[in-house]
């Protein structure tokens, strides 16, 4: 009698173990693939500008008395490529800092000030090519990393500028709902828009719909990956809505515990 019971119990136990094991292996393989792809992507992103810079340097060595106008043109292009590599390395460092969770310093600051700063940076990037409007609700101060949120909000407005053709509209806003104590930062553009099939993958590192367009406007392909990390670290939520040819709306929802001052204030 006992033996029968045992074997009956062993069968489901074993099959569950196997299932768990194969799921773990699949997960490990997935992580390895992501890592391999990442290294390949970084190498590829660095190789192109390095090839360009190397080529120009060779020309300048081979032809020392090159036409000055040609020389300054080549120097400008080399500078552009160096800047591109710098942006990539900066973004990689930011990502790795976020992934390692170092340098986390939360502080209290006025959201309105940050949103105004980000909007004025957007105007700087746009240089009058877009109509940029700003709307800000009154709200309690936010508790979080000012630098990180500056970078997250900044990435969203710079994307709006970069993916909206001249003459388009960009709406930057901060909304605060007093009943739920939740806040929401959003950037709405009338730009090229995004096909819904791409939306779930946009925050993956180096995921770009149009590599040429991203590069031409100075993109590294890491902006939204950085935004995702910052958003997660603040228990916030990133929401993306878009329609190809019409425009996009990116918003970051800030939870009540990062805005409700009553508790914090009571103890100050
Ligand atoms: P990139 O440096 O390429 O802009 P991001 O991570 O910031 O990298 O964005 C990933 C991709 O998402 C972009 O390459 C682009 O295809 C798309 N994207 C981001 N923001 C917008 C936007 N406002 N409108 C249209 N497409 C966008």
Automatic annotation (TrEMBL):
It is an enzyme of class 2 (transferase). Keywords: ATP-binding, Cell membrane, Kinase, Membrane, Nucleotide-binding, Phosphate transport, Phosphoprotein, Transferase, Transmembrane, Transmembrane helix, Transport, Two-component regulatory system. The keyword tRNA-binding does not apply. It comes from the Bacteria. It is found in: Cell membrane. Its EC number is 2.7.13.3. Residues 41-258 form the Histidine kinase domain. It catalyses: ATP + protein L-histidine = ADP + protein N-phospho-L-histidine. Member of the two-component regulatory system PhoR/PhoB involved in the phosphate regulon genes expression. PhoR may function as a membrane-associated protein kinase that phosphorylates PhoB in response to environmental signals. This is Phosphate regulon sensor protein PhoR. The chain holds residues 175 to 442 of 442 of the full protein.
């Amino acid at each position: 009698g006992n033996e029968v019971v045992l074997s009956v119990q062993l069968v489901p136990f074993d099959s569950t173990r196997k299932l768990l094991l194969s799921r773990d292996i699949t997960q490990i393989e997935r992580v390895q693939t992501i890592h391999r792809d990442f290294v390949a992507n970084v190498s590829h992103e660095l190789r192109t500008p390095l090839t360009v810079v190397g080529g120009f340097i060779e020309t300048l060595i081979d032809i020392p008395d090159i036409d000055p106008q040609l020389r300054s043109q080549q120097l400008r292009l080399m500078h552009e490529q160096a800047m591109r590599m710098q942006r990539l390395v900066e973004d990689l460092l930011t990502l790795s800092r976020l992934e390692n969770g170092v340098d986390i310093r939360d502080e209290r600051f006025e959201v309105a000030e940050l949103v105004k700063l980000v909007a004025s940076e957007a105007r700087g990037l746009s240089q009058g090519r877009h109509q940029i409007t700003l709307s800000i609700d009154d709200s309690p101060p936010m508790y979080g990393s000012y630098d990180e949120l500056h970078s997250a909000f900044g990435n969203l407005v710079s994307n709006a500028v970069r993916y909206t053709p001249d003459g388009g509209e960009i709406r930057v806003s901060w909304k605060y709902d007093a009943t739920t104590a939740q806040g929401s930062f959003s950037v709405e553009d009338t730009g090229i828009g995004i096909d819904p099939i791409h939306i779930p993958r946009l925050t993956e590192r180096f995921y770009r719909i149009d590599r040429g367009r991203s590069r031409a406007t100075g993109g590294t392909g890491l902006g939204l990956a950085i935004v995702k990390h910052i958003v997660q670290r603040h228990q916030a939520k990133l929401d993306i809505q878009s329609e190809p040819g019409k425009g996009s709306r990116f918003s970051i929802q800030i939870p009540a515990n990062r805005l409700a001052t009553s508790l914090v204030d009571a103890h100050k």
